[in-house]
Design goal:
The protein contains 8 helices and 17 strands. It is an alpha/beta fold and 328 residues long. It has a 7-stranded parallel beta sheet, sandwiched between helices. A 5-stranded parallel beta sheet has the order 14-13-15-16-17.
């Protein structure tokens, strides 16, 4: 198998000095590809001086290109795009990988356009063909088919869904090089973070328990019982696109093809019929419980347990029984 480019570059994501776990998953996949094509694994990251860049070495990066500056403490798509562009130009990787997080989905297209290369978004699989070219696999048509895509230009860029691959094993015995990268001129910054709004239900992709509400919820105030059930189970609140579009809950809670893809240990769908777009985001949950008054709702086809009942009766009863069990 021939080598395409000079390396495999993982574009890391961090916030307030904390590395996003999708970076470790990408490093694991990059190492797998490296074993097949013989290219070195690199990682580029920008953040505050105290960012634990050695963790990227422990996870498999042979070289870490580090832009240390407090300006990167909070995400800045424009400045980070310039930093990544500079690293790519200097290193000439054959493959660039980034997480398909909200931030990655904003940065990656900007970077691809700046580099004049292609980008395959939301990949669920990555392979190499016999010529060493990257085969980028992503679902299409609500996950009814899998598209296999190749990029003619270099670098071959892809964003990968969070929790699609296992994290790279951590080994503190690994050795690697950290290369400091000079950053763009501070005076040339095009955007500034004025304030940061944080939602209580943010980052549902990390939740082990999700209680999700659908169109069966009639009013925003009725989400109180959904939140109560989620809190009792130590989980987070999710939602279908329908009630997000209706303005009952924030988009950061949306589960589905156009929202977050989640894999909790327990997923409770309340008043969700089970449209293909929603199922695409949660069907790989460990255990699925569905509450719906329609016995023909598609959600029952993938549920481990189904409760054919009005959620306004079933959810309060679940809350009552869980509280009673906790009080014993």
């Amino acid at each position: 198998m021939q080598k395409v480019g000079k390396g495999i570059l993982v574009l890391a994501e961090q916030k307030h000095g904390k590395l996003h776990k999708v970076t470790y998953e990408l490093l694991g996949k990059a190492a797998e590809l490296s074993r097949k094509c013989g290219l070195p694994v690199w990682c580029a990251v920008a953040g505050p001086e105290e960012l634990p860049v050695e963790e990227l070495v422990f996870r498999g990066a042979q070289t870490v290109f580090f832009g240390a500056d407090k300006r990167f403490d909070t995400p800045d798509e424009l400045l980070l795009t310039r930093f990544f562009k500079q690293v790519v130009r200097d290193t000439e990787p054959g493959i660039c990988l980034m997480g398909a997080t909200s931030f990655g989905r904003s940065v990656a297209p900007r970077l691809a356009a700046a580099l004049g290369t292609g980008l395959t978004a939301d990949c669920t699989g990555l392979e190499l063909d016999e010529d060493g070219r990257l085969v980028q696999i992503r679902p299409a048509f609500s996950e009814n088919i899998l598209a296999h895509i190749k990029t003619d230009t270099l670098p071959q860029m892809a964003t990968v869904r969070y929790k699609e691959f296992p994290e790279a094993a951590r080994d503190e015995g690994r050795k690697g090089e950290v290369v400091r990268v000079e950053l763009p001129d501070p005076a040339d910054r095009l955007a500034e973070v004025v304030s940061e709004l944080k939602s209580q239900e943010a980052d549902i992709s990390d939740a082990e328990v999700i209680v999700a509400a659908g169109r069966g919820v009639k009013e925003a105030k009725d989400l109180g019982m959904i939140r109560e059930l989620a809190e009792l189970l130590g989980g987070r609140v999710g939602a279908s696109r329908a009630i997000v579009d209706d303005g009952l809950i924030g988009r950061e809670c949306q589960v589905g093809y156009s929202g977050s893809r989640v894999k909790p240990k327990l997923y409770i769908a309340c008043g969700i019929s089970g449209a293909p777009q929603h199922l695409a985001g949660m069907r790989e949950s460990g255990y699925i419980a569905a509450i719906n008054s329609d016995p023909s709702a598609p959600i029952f086809n993938i549920a481990d347990i189904g409760i054919c009942e009005d959620l306004y009766r079933a959810v309060p009863e679940l809350i009552r029984k869980i509280r009673a069990a906790k009080d014993k």
